[in-house]
Specification:
Layout: H1 2-30, H2 35-47, H3 49-60, H4 64-89, H5 99-118, E1 122-123, H6 125-144, H7 153-156, H8 164-196, H9 200-225, H10 229-254, E2 257-258, H11 265-284, H12 289-308
């Protein structure tokens, strides 16, 4: 029965997040916000809602391993799987934005900050506040950077048939699905872990993280199909900032998070390695199949290592 509850609750998480992403994007389009900013903020936060709901719920129930592993797994899946698939399948990826010049610092700072905070074995409430301020700083940075993106508006922003009543209704439905889905996802995942003797770290690192990364995968593939590469890459970078800053930050505010950085060092290394490789790809503008193969290799190694822990 737990398996059915897990699948249904994960579906509710993803389905609810999809509602929120679609309606939030309509609001952004209505106010003529450039594509990269939409991807890096509105859509990034929306597609990170499953991780947010799952990790905050886990933290509330005192399950630090589930809260932290979900974030680390999601970031690894976002970069290695999502971007790996995109670089492998897309014929021509040419972002109009200089990702390396403008955004590489936001790719590297979150995992480095996490490692520094977790070195003493915990992420405190003060650490959580600092992480939340990181997200505020990122939004301010993008707002200041908006003028350089205004040229995108004529090409990338299309007016939509917009209704505040309809949008508000679907946003409420979406949040209800996400909150309820998160509660039952954590409960059922914990029970499955007990039944199979699997650690909560592993089940969160793989199964919950993969499920909560599906919105990023779907949104990014659709964006690339619509020739909106900036939105796709902005979504991944923004999602990763949101995962570390908002998801971990809010989870730590609910309850301080205990982290065994050395025991789980390989998983942390995968996050850091994939982030460094993304910076290298953006520096060399190697948005091609070889980059996709390298990133997918990381996720294969990551999954294989995790399964060896079962």
């Amino acid at each position: 029965m737990e398996y059915i509850i897990f699948l249904v609750s994960m579906s509710a998480l993803i389905y609810g997040a999809n509602f929120i992403v679609i309606e939030s994007e309509k609001i952004a389009l209505y106010f003529e916000i450039p594509a990269f900013i939409i991807g890096a903020t509105i859509i990034a936060l929306g597609t990170s809602l499953p991780e947010m709901a799952a990790s905050i719920t886990a933290s509330y129930h005192g399950k630090s391993d589930m809260a932290v592993a979900n974030v680390l797994g999601s970031v690894t899946f976002n970069i290695s799987l999502v971007l790996g698939v995109i670089f492998l399948l897309a014929k021509n990826i040419t972002p109009t934005r200089d990702i390396f010049k403008n955004d590489s610092i936001w790719i590297i700072i979150p995992p480095v900050l996490f490692i520094l905070m977790a070195y003493d074995g915990s992420i405190s409430r003060i650490d959580g506040l600092i992480l939340l301020f990181l997200m505020v700083a990122y939004v301010i940075f993008l707002q200041d950077d908006r003028k350089s993106l205004e040229a995108e508006l004529d090409n990338d922003i299309l007016k939509v048939n917009f209704s505040w009543i309809k949008t508000s209704f679907f946003l409420i439905i979406g949040f209800a699905f996400v909150i309820t889905g998160a509660q039952y996802t954590i409960q059922s995942a914990s029970q499955i872990a007990v039944n199979f003797g699997i650690s909560e770290w592993v089940i969160s690192l793989l199964f919950i993280a993969f499920g909560t990364s599906l919105p990023e995968l779907i949104v990014s593939i659709i964006a690339v199909k619509n020739n909106n590469v900036d939105m796709a890459i902005g979504n991944i970078i923004g999602s990763n900032v949101a995962n570390f800053a908002v998801v971990l930050g809010a989870s730590a505010l609910v309850n301080p998070l205990h982290v065994d950085l050395f025991k789980n060092g390989f998983d942390v290394l995968c996050v850091f390695a994939s982030s460094v490789i993304l910076v290298y790809i953006s520096a060399t503008k190697l948005y091609k199949k070889p980059a996709g193969i390298v990133l997918l290799s990381i996720i294969i190694i990551f999954i294989n290592h995790s399964f060896n822990l079962i």
